[in-house]
Every structure is written in C-alpha cells, then in structure tokens.
Amino acid sequence: MKQSFSVLAILFLAFSLVACASRPESGFLSAVAYSPPGAVDHTLLVATTRERDARPGTLFNGDRASAIDYAELTVSVPPNHKQNQIEWASAPPGDPNVNFVVRDEKYLDGDRAFLQALNAQLALRPPGSRNVFLFVHGFNTMFAEAVYRGAQLAHDSQAPGVPVLFTWASRGQATAYVYDLNSATAARDALEHTLRLLLRSNAEKVNVLAHSMGNWVTVEAFRQIRLSGDLPPASKIGTILLAAPDIDIDVFKSQLRRFGKPQKPFYVVLSQDDRALFLSRTIAGGVT
C-alpha cells in the first residue's frame, strides 16, 4: 500500500512540470565533488535518442541520434530543497548547498552496461522496493531539464525504486513543436526497447510516468509491444500515469483500443495550468 501511495504522489507533482526561467543549454551537468550535510544523492539511469554533446557538462543535446544511447548520473538535491521545485544555479555548475548539481556522470556502452548498472542499483534496495520509476518527459525540454526533473520527481514522490529517464530528442525550443513531435515519433522503437530491457531486469515492478508529448511516445511504445505479440510478463508492469497527455483525443482512443481494459493501475491526469500543454495546444491549433 505504501508503494501505491508513493506512486500516486506523482499525480500531484506532475502539474509542476515546467521549464526553468533561464534555459540550461550547456555546462549544467558538470560534476561537483563537494556534498554538503543534508544534501541527498539520487542515481539516475538514462536511455536516450539524443546525440552526444562534447561540450563539458552537457552530455547530450537536442539533435537526433541514429541509435539509442545510455548514461548514468548522480544528482544531488540541496538541503534547502522545496517540494515541486528545482533549485537551478544561475551559472554552471552550481552550488550544492543551494542548487541541484551533478555529483557524477558517465556514458554507458550499450544494453549490457545499462542492464548491469540498473541491476546493481536494484540490488542496493531491499526486497519489496526493487522497482523502477520510469519518467518520459514532454515537449520543449532540454537534456539537463529532463535530468533534474527526473531526480526531483523521484525525490519528492519518495517512489521506491531506481529512477530511470527516457529522454527523446526534444529541441528545447517553444517554436520547435513539429521537430519535437517528429522526434517523439522517431523514438517509439527506442522506448519500446527500453521498456523491454527494464522488464528483463531484476526489477519487481516497472512504474511509468509520462508528461505532455512524452505520452505520445509512451502510448505508442506500449501499443507496439501489444501488436508484436511478444508480450512481457504482465506481473512486472506496475502503475502507468499519463500526465497532461498531448495527444489528439481520437488518436488516443484509437491507441487505447489495442490495450483493451487496463489490467494494472492506469491514470490519465489533466491540468489546465500546464504551460507546456497550453503552448503545444496553441501551436497545434487547439486540437488535443
């Protein structure tokens, strides 16, 4: 029951998914060695369709890669953290006393390294808490924003398990809606592959939270799994939460027909205050 309440707490946190005032294009993921008393570290595993970026403290950008890539980051949440907020630094890399910062980061070389890192994190948790919390971000999201939002959601929700971020190649620009939509569509196979890896891991449950345009790629990935006929063990699929889905209602109904009646907790959450969804609806002509 505690697990259910923890996952449901994300329901309220999802409404705060908005970008920071000054966009963290580069440098905000540079590792900071110092960890002050009261700071809390979260190890975040990343699967992405973004292109690698050679600039220090950046890792990935908004360009589309030709293949799925992986990384592992340790994010420090500052002692002064306020729930639902990301305490952004005014300049990189930030002060761990008052800002979200990265304590460690590295690329992971392929599926095997990703699975090994995930299973190692799961092994650090007691039985009953060896779950995965998968976050799929939405429209207009830079890589650093996705990383820190994933860490913030894991921290504030206290969801038991290992936080995993699936980040598709959003340009991180309000005017790049069509580019983002095409990037999300191109990421369907990669998210399906990631879900299958998570379900093959030693995780007891895989819980999923998608936001805004991230719902499009999430529902499409589950639809593809269903259509393939190669279905994973249903017992390992936990709660699925679709927050402020940026999907045309008729398309959404068509997608869900492939699912049939949900066998697991399945929530669709709407918010009139979601800025990313409002912006995407405006660009799309109000049809969502």
Biggest sheet: strand arrangement: 3-2-1-5-4-6-7-8
N-to-C terminal Cα separation, in Å?
A: 34 Å
Order of helices and strands: HEEEHEHEHHEHEHEH
**What class, by secondary structure content?**
alpha/beta
Helix count, per DSSP? Answer: 8
Number of domains: 1
Task: Tally the beta strands.
Answer: 8
- Biggest β-sheet description: 8 strands, mixed
User: Which range best describes the helical content: under 10%, 10-25%, 25-40%, 40-55%, 55-70% or over 70%?
Assistant: 25-40%
What global shape is seen? globular
Rg of Cα set: 18 Å
- As a percent range, the share of strand residues is 15-25%
Instruction: Provide mean pLDDT, rounded.
Output: 86
Low-pLDDT parts are 276-288
Task: Give a verbal description of the structure.
With 288 residues, the chain is α/β, with parallel strands linked by helices. It has one domain. The protein has an 8-stranded mixed sheet with strand order 3-2-1-5-4-6-7-8, sandwiched between helices. The longest helix is centred in the middle third of the chain and has 15 residues. The two termini are 34 Å apart. 43% of the residues are buried.
